[in-house]
Amino acid sequence: MIKIAPSLLSADLANLTSECQKAASADLLHFDVMDGSFVPNITFGIPVLSALRKCTTMPLDVHLMIDNPQNYIEPFARAGADCISVHLEAVGPTYIREALHAMEQNGVKKAIALRPITDPDSVLPYIEEVDLILVMTVEPGFGGQSFMDSQLPKIQKVRSLIDRYHPECDLEVDGGINAKTVQKAVAAGANVLVAGSAVFGQPDIPAKIAELRRLAEETPFPGAN
Ligand code: DX5
Ligand code: ZN
Question: Does the reported pTM lie above 0.85?
Answer without folding.
Answer: yes
